Backbone:
């Protein structure tokens, strides 16, 4: 709701009620509050790509995967419906009732991501892949208690800042979906609400990229963390032994 409404305000306000920074801040704040709301209940699984990665790594039982993804998709779909209802009058005034995906009064991008006109499908895929890899790598670093993780209680805020940073530096090409749960359900909603099937064909059938690229990027981020950080974190006993302190081995 925070993210989509910030996009709606910037687009429908024609730049008089915010700029790109407003969108980045809106999504960062939304992520922070989402983690606070669901962190103690589910670990705040807000991203299907990250949930799938945790299942593959064995950090989350596969039996929880369908429930988490259904929850993510339902929440995102309802968020799109909520923002649509809140800004319906503004949408109608801005478009004169003609909801389009492209053109001078295009509004579909309020709800889902679309590539910039100059971006190739491969370039857009790489952008989403890299941005999600940075997202997952950042999340693992923030929660890495063996390393220099974030202070207890600040993880939600720092993760929100991480999302803000991704938006500030990697949002130009594709709008940084970095999450199938954030992009696909609102796209389905717009198809139902009046934008039609163009939401799936626009941008050379772009819709599948924000679904697949974040999954691969999330796995790549986990691999980078494992190879270059986690493997090099020595256990406390080993560090103690290097300092000349006695180490007691127990069975």
Residues:
């Amino acid at each position: 709701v925070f993210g989509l409404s910030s996009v709606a305000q910037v687009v429908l306000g024609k730049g008089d009620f915010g700029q790109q920074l407003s969108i980045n801040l809106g999504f960062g704040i939304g992520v922070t509050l989402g983690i606070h709301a669901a962190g103690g209940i589910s670990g705040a699984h807000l991203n299907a790509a990250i949930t799938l990665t945790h299942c593959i790594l064995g950090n989350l039982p596969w039996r929880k995967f369908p429930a988490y993804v259904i929850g993510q998709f339902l929440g995102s779909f309802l968020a799109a419906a909520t923002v649509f209802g809140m800004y319906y009058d503004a949408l109608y005034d801005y478009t004169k009732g003609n909801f389009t995906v492209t053109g001078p009064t295009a509004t579909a991008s309020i709800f889902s991501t679309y590539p910039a006109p100059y971006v190739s499908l491969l370039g857009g895929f790489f952008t989403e892949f890299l941005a999600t890899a940075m997202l997952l790598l950042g999340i693992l670093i923030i929660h890495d208690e063996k390393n220099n993780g974030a202070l207890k209680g600040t993880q939600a805020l720092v993760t929100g800042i991480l999302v803000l940073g991704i938006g500030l530096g990697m949002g130009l090409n594709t709008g940084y979906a970095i999450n199938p749960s954030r992009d696909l359900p609102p796209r389905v909603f717009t198809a139902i609400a009046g934008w039609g099937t163009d939401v799936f064909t626009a941008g050379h059938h772009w819709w599948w990229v924000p679904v697949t690229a974040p999954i691969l990027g999330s796995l790549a981020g986990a691999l980078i963390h494992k190879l270059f950080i986690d493997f090099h974190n020595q256990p406390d006993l080993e560090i103690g032994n290097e300092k000349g302190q006695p180490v007691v081995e127990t069975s």
Q: What stands out?
A: Residues 1-231 form a domain with the Glycerol uptake facilitator protein fold (CATH 1.20.1080.10). Residues 106 and 153 are 41 Å apart (CA to CA). Confidence is low (pLDDT under 50) at residues 238-251.
